[in-house]
Amino acid sequence: MGVTTALEWLGSCSGCEIAILNIGEDLVPLITETLDIVHAPVLMDHKYFGQCGEGVTLTIPDAVVGIVTGGVSNHEHVEVLEEMREKCKVLIALGTCATHGGIPALMNGWNQQEGWQDIFRTASTDPGAEIPDVEVPAPLDRVYACDEKVKIDMQLPGCPPNPELIAEVIISLVEGRDPVLPGKSVCDTCPTKREGKGAVNKVKRFIANADFKPGGPIDEMRCLLEQGYMCMGPVTAAGCAKRGAPSCISARVPCRGCFGPVRKGGNQLLDMMNALASNGIDYKSVVDRRSILRFSGAHGRLRPVKKRVEREEK
């Protein structure tokens, strides 16, 4: 008998579940010998209110380990998350949506009502469509990370998360030890050449390839931030690298920040502005600074911009 495990997804795209499958051959012994999966909507037919709908309250089986993916954006998500917290001894938030809001939290930068209007009443759909409010969960005021609603015992970010790290977390829990996880930034694991402050003082748009030798080793390419590109390696947690260089850097493109801030409670926007300044780059040259929070807009980081009220001419 393995460790009883419950899996749930909230506001997510199922990319984290695909990452679990991408553990590969090592996944077979995990799910056949190590884990006893008692609840997983993505894998098995287990109803919240009983198999025949006879229940009156949402119920999830007791489990030692709970894994939750996705952010919290409506009242059903809150109910499911609270039930997972109640029934699981160890609750893990998996993926950047669960840990920092992820892409769905970009909605936090807009007025919610105006956002729903744009979604449901655009000319490309049906100008007369109503915002649904019957038989669908009521939305929250914004998108939340899981730890804003319940106590989370372990966070493993990533969009998607690294399959090797998922396996490490599961195995460490079974073995009763602390998991071996990266504790540095993407920059700390990046092998590109650093020559000091770059020769540019403005952020360049990534509409042309960076300067590197095609087919050459990654450690011969100069740091993309020093080349003037918006590489978020200094303010992003490491963990995306399977073996070798970080994933984006391996493709010769700047880090997009998908693993969230390096330190707990970090603000990627403020930290990135400091990183640009330290490299002699004018932070004012960043066209859309709020986009730096594209993966970490929960925890009140990303908020609607107040419209400026024009003074009436007297």
UniProtKB/TrEMBL annotation:
Cross-referenced Pfam families: Oxidored_q6 (PF01058)
Molecular functions (GO terms): iron-sulfur cluster binding; oxidoreductase activity
UniProt KW keywords: Oxidoreductase
Record domain NADH:ubiquinone oxidoreductase-like 20kDa subunit: where: 13-172
TM stretches of this protein: none
Protein name per the record: Methyl viologen-reducing hydrogenase subunit gamma
Organism expressing this protein natively: Desulfomarina profundi
